[in-house]
């Protein structure tokens, strides 16, 4: 896993968002956009989605379900998710992750949500320089 991604995963492991319509993380979809909340906690249950046409911090670009029988642990879950998110990045953005000015992070199940049947990982992206994105990054080639 690339160092840039590892740093991003550690920095964003406390993701929540503010402003917009509250959306359960269980109801996110590819193409949903949202903003960061500086008062983040370790567990996210809701995010405040915004229209992607408006300036925003993040966009969901891929989602998948993990198939492990039991929770693989926090670090393993983040590593599995990060690798899969990397694999799917170019297909959405239109440019390789290595040459992009976008960064990625996964929103993963917790041990507690896993016990309730949660297996979905959401792959999100944001601008590497932390500037606001405007419009979808689908096919943005950046």
Brief characterization of the structure:
By secondary structure, the chain is α+β, with helices and mostly antiparallel strands.
SSE topology sketch:
Blueprint: H1 3-11, E1 21-24, E2 33-34, E3 46-50, E4 58-65, H2 74-93, E5 102-107, H3 111-115, E6 120-127
Antiparallel strand pairs: 1-3, 2-3, 2-4, 4-6, 5-6
Describe the protein's architecture and organization.
The structure is a single chain. This protein is 24% helix and 23% strand. It is an alpha+beta fold and 142 residues long. It has a domain at 3-14 and 56-127. It has a six-stranded antiparallel sheet with strand order 1-3-2-4-6-5.
Percent of residues in beta strands? 15-25%
Shape: globular
Task: Kindly state the percentage of residues in helix.
Answer: 10-25%
Rg over alpha carbons = 14 Å
Q: What class would the helix/strand composition place it in? A: alpha+beta
SSE series: HEEEEHEHE
Strand order of the largest sheet: 1-3-2-4-6-5
**Low-confidence parts lasting 5 or more residues at pLDDT below 50?**
1-20
Number of strands: 6
Q: Gap between N and C termini, in Å?
A: 21 Å
Q: What are the main properties of this structure?
A:
single chain, 142 residues, alpha+beta, 6-stranded antiparallel sheet, 24% helix, globular, disordered N terminus
């Amino acid at each position: 896993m690339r160092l840039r991604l590892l740093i991003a995963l550690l920095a964003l492991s406390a993701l929540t968002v503010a402003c917009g319509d509250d959306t359960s993380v269980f109801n996110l979809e590819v193409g949903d956009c949202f903003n960061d909340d500086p008062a983040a906690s370790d567990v996210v249950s809701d995010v405040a989605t915004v229209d992607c046409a408006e300036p925003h911090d993040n966009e969901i670009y891929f989602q998948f379900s993990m198939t492990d029988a039991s929770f693989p642990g926090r670090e393993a879950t983040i590593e599995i998710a990060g690798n899969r998110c990397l694999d799917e990045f170019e297909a959405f953005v239109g440019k390789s992750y290595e040459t992009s000015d976008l960064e990625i992070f996964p929103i993963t199940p917790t041990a507690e949500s896993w016990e309730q049947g949660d297996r979905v990982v959401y792959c999100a992206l944001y601008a590497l320089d932390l500037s606001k994105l405007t419009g979808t990054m689908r096919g943005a080639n950046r």
